[in-house]
Amino acid sequence: MHEAKPSDGIITLSPLRPADAEAHLAGEDERLVRWLSGEPATREGVEAYLRHCREQWESAGPLRAFGIRVGAGEVLAGTVDLRFALEALSPGQVNVAYGLYPAWRGRGLATRAVVLAARYAAGEGAGQAVIRVDPENTASAAVARRAGFRPSGRTHGAEGAALDHYVRDLHSVPR
């Protein structure tokens, strides 16, 4: 597995791993369920997802799921996922999704994580990063704007839910 560990000196992104299951389960709250997963996690489901993430890293698959880690002990504060292939994307685009556990919110860590993830995606050949946000998720939209993304329209998902799109050109992002 290619060990990607982008860091800005405050946070480090590193591939999610099976040992992250406990921290993820402990950190999940109503906001993460509402905006990201749609239903509360189970141990079995989290462990299966983490195995899938590891397999994606090992096979250089289209999903690159990072843990957002803080401090010398690299405490898991949340996640940021890159999807290089998704039905809603055009060639060269990468989808960015992120979430922080409650104890870590309000410190600018999500913005840092999105910036680092965008740099990683640029290094992997992506030309544009896309963040899709429920219009009611104002905190996530604020992260997108602070990370240099600009609004680019609204679509409706498979179930009819509105999603505001934010995009960032990655051609000039330092790798």
From TrEMBL:
Domain N-acetyltransferase: 11-170
SUPFAM superfamilies reported for this sequence: Acyl-CoA N-acyltransferases (Nat)
A Pfam cross-reference name: Acetyltransf_3
Superkingdom of origin: Bacteria
Identification of the protein by name: GNAT family N-acetyltransferase
The species this protein was found in: Nocardiopsis suaedae
